[in-house]
Amino acid sequence: MFAQLPIFQKLIRQLQRVPYLASKNVYRVAMYFLTTDQKAIEQLCATILEAKKAIQPCQHCFNWTEAGNQCSICSSDKRDKSVICVVETWHDLFAIENAGNFKGLYHVLGGALCPLEGIGPDQLTIDRLVKRVDDQIQEVIFATNPTPEGEATASYIWSKINTRPLQISKLASGVPIGSSLEYMDRVTIGKALIGRRPF
Ligand SMILES: [Zn+2]
Description:
Helices cover 41% and strands 12% of the residues. It has 199 residues and is α/β, with parallel strands linked by helices.
């Protein structure tokens, strides 16, 4: 059907490479691009390039930042710099931040250990976390997801830092097994944080 439309096919192939774009939506998105005026499309492309260039992971915690070295959480003097909450992804950081009752720092791992998919410690920011846990840090809270991968990741990190004089805790069991923090409501996350227990 698209044999006479090689550039259209190329557009579809590119869109299909974007995760989370469900396949039936790819054609709707392509139609939106084709029917929207030229200027709006140019602005969209320019903004994607601008964002790609300007937004970088924070040097300390790997949260996103536009400011250069440090994100707004690491550079804030209102945050408790003796506590680090360890999360898998930025979505989890966002969910906890949205819950509103955590005032410490974060560390974004970039995922969870998953040997079958080739994700080992070197693919995550675990080394950087271990280096961050110095004398200033009094507590590390594991907020990895309650999945086998999330639990294994927390255990691995625990094995790297458990000899240090600090409290290591994990979110309370209000978090449903196998679920992801990013889909949880604020109250559940808030309660899980307050009720955290030793790891
Ligand atoms: Zn940061």
